[in-house]
Amino acid sequence: MKLALKKRLVLASNSPRRITLLKMAGYHFDIIPHTIEECIPCKIFPEELVGNLAFLKANDVARKLDNAIVISADTIVVYKESVVGKPKDTRDAKRILKMLSGSGHDIITAVCIIDMPERKKLLRIDRTSIIMKEITEDEIEIYVRSGEPMDKAGAYAVQGEGKKFIEKMDGSFSNAVGLPLEIVHEMLNNFTKSANA
Q: Which end of the chain is more exposed for a tag (fewer CB within 10 A), N or C?
């Protein structure tokens, strides 16, 4: 799956999940975390929100580099057209899990790649649909106590213990984790073709 990139590849994130996914795909890259303050406005379409945040993250790092390909991503959980962020505390994590229990939601990730110094930009969005099982109060209590939900949008991790709550997944697994590798590969391949044209 890996491509032979002629430029330095930079991931604008220190997310352990995105770092692991990119390494698993065989890419060699440097990590330069963005300094963007992430906030969720009340009135904005989910796709517009993740797209804007992914671009701001990539641009924040790209403008500091002379010759590199910068990749960034932003992931949100959408339930009944409302954005579900990371839980504020354990009480909030329990609230979110109860809300998602026995129902469906979407995990949306935007990937932005900027090629410097040309400043060529690509932005793609992927969506994975999830149907959750009915989760009991005891299961929620034990899961929240584990600490896993606390830094995850939607208060669970599809790649961790949270996978036991998933009844059905339609779409990319890596997207649900936080970085759709199929799309990343296509986007980087686009840059490679452009450079060789």
A: C
How many structural domains comprise the chain? 1
Peptide bond into 117 cis (omega under 30): yes
175's tokens:
């997207």
CATH number at residue 108: 3.90.950.10
Kindly tell me if the per-residue pLDDT of 38 is higher than 80: no
| Cα–Cα dist 191/33, whole Å | 22
Whose CA is closest to 29, among 70, 65, 61? 70
> From the CA atom positions of the chain, what is the Rg in Å?
17
Q: Point out the catalytic residue in the list 30, 60, 66, 74.
A: 74
- Residue 104 is inside which H or E element, if any? strand 104-116
Please check whether residue 117 is in contact with residue 66, taking contact to mean a CB–CB distance below 8 angstroms. yes
State CA 36 to chain mean position distance: 15
80 and 72 Cβ atoms separated by less than 8 Å: no
User: Which residue blocks in 44-160 are alpha helix, DSSP H?
Assistant: 46-62, 90-100, 137-146
1, part of any domain = no
**pLDDT tens figures, 58-107:** 999 999 999 999 999 999 999 998 899 889 999 999 999 999 999 999 99
Chain mean position to CA 159: 13
